[in-house]
Amino acid sequence: MSEPPQTAFVLGGGGILGAHEVGMLQALAESGIAADLVLGTSIGAVNGAFYAADPGVDGVARLRELWSSADVAELSSAALLRRASTLARSGTHIESYSRLHARLSELLPVERVEDLTTPFQCVAASIERAAEHWFDSGPLADVVLASCAVPGILPAVRIGDEHFIDGGIVNSIPVSRAVLLGARRIFVLQVGRVEQPLRAPRWPWEVGLVAFEVARRHRFASDLHSLPAGIELHVMPTGGTAAPAYNDLAGQLQLRRSARRVGRWIDVAHEASLRYLDEHVCHRPRSADLSRSSSG
Predict the structure, then answer these.
(1) Does 282 score more than 90 pLDDT?
(2) How far apart are alpha carbons 255 and 262 in whole angstroms?
(3) 3-state helix, strand, coil in the chain (%, to 5)
(4) Residue 57 pLDDT > 50
(5) DSSP symbol at 228
(6) Residue 49: enclosing H or E segment and its boundaries?
(7) What H or E segment, with its residue span, contains residue 142?
(8) Run of H or E residues at 120
(9) How many CA atoms lie within 13 A of 200 on its CB side?
(10) What is the pTM of this model?
(11) 77-94 as b/e, with b when 16 or more CB fall inside 10 Å?
């Protein structure tokens, strides 16, 4: 990257709740706000890659269609949790890497990170180095799936001599990366989970979920508190939709059955983000409103 980016879009993880990010991207595109750099974690890496391939109103409309048809939603952990046969065979994960890789390769508009229109990076956690690793080149499907490889759901993704797992473990909402790369204006696209209250685990299966939520929220809060002077930061709103809590596995499993709910999340986040941008950001006049033509 020859010059530091002025505007960065930071897309956090959150499984099927990543539908909210589509509404935010739609509002940003309609408001004439474009990214010089796109950073993504987990489902945010998926959304970010599609946006970086076609960063405009038409490209976001295509991404919305993919979510509405369940093509992208199928890549989320909530959808994958329904499958148990692979776990019985593998002992470590419940989804086949090859199946998801083939599906994602089919959907992605380009083959390599370097072919994207807007500079894009996504993060994964290296097992061997116990560290975050940022991909800014390479086969796009491989690096995006590495960023999405939730332990226990997807197998670790081998790239070179290392194995990678979900980037949310090390940097769920990577504001710090945008600052490091020189962005002066940062738009954070998050799914609302960091706003939900936490409580001590009551059941064995909640222990890991609570530990993960503490880690991800601590990192995000620390990054926000340590922002350098002169950074313009905008945390885009979800619109306050009633998403399932972090420990509500039954609610997560039910989400995939309702495409209408996913569309609702997109619409609510879109409207809330438009209002936020109108109130807080100076920008060019909005283009034609996608939601009025797409949601009827």
Answers:
(1) no
(2) 8
(3) 50, 15, 40
(4) yes
(5) P
(6) helix 43-53
(7) helix 140-148
(8) strand 120-126
(9) 0
(10) 0.84
(11) bbbbbeeeebeeeeeebb
